[in-house]
Amino acid sequence: MPYNRLAEKTIVVLGVLALTTLLLVWYATLYPFVFPKAWLFRVLVEVMALFYMPLWFSYPEYRPKKSLIWVGVGVHLAALAVSSLFGASFSKSFWSNSERMEGLFGMLHYAAFAYMLCGIMQRNAYVFSLLSKIVLGVGAVSVIAALFRAIDSGYIRLEGVAGNPSFFA
């Protein structure tokens, strides 16, 4: 199997796993509803990047087409970088904290995830269909889990695997 097919399949599998991290709750951590999701997502995106980078350099068809959306993403990331650089604490702006797991580092991972999947999806329409079904499935499982958790706890507001009704909404 040529590298581009193997890398494409690996990236799709890792993308599916990254999308399902939303269902992960790990009570052994200090923030069981946020930290494991964000940590595993970032690791999966970085492994995806290892497979995607050779595709990007060797096969131009895996590079997303230039569009206003990508310009907007770039401007947004640049604004975040400037605000991190000139903010009160570069470290907190860049890394955030384990309770929120946002910050410039996290946003770079989200942008890279979208960029890589966009590059794969424009070449293979089946991937878009598959990932759409995975997103809908994860959403359905989240709602079902929230309903069961609400029935079990007697807590009326649904919080599901997000651990917080506001985040779950």
Q: How would you characterize this protein structure?
A:
- The longest helix has 29 residues, at 125-153.
- It contains 7 helices and no strands.
- The model has no long low-confidence stretch (mean pLDDT 91).
- With 169 residues, the chain is mainly alpha-helical.
- The radius of gyration is 18 Å and the shape is globular.
Q: Radius of gyration in whole Å, from Cα? A: 18 Å
DSSP helix fraction:
55-70%
What shape does the CA trace take? globular
Count of helix runs:
7
**Low-confidence stretches at least 5 residues in length (pLDDT < 50)?**
none
Q: Please trace the helix and strand order, writing H or E for each element.
A: HHHHHHH
Mean pLDDT: 91
% residues in beta strands: under 5%
Largest sheet: none
Report the span from N to C terminus: 43 Å
Structural category is: mainly alpha
Question: Total strand count, please?
Answer: 0
Brief sketch in words of this structure:
By secondary structure, this protein is mainly α.
List keywords for this structure.
169 residues, mainly alpha, 7 helices
List the helices and strands and how they pair.
Layout: H1 3-20, H2 35-58, H3 68-86, H4 90-95, H5 104-121, H6 125-153, H7 165-168
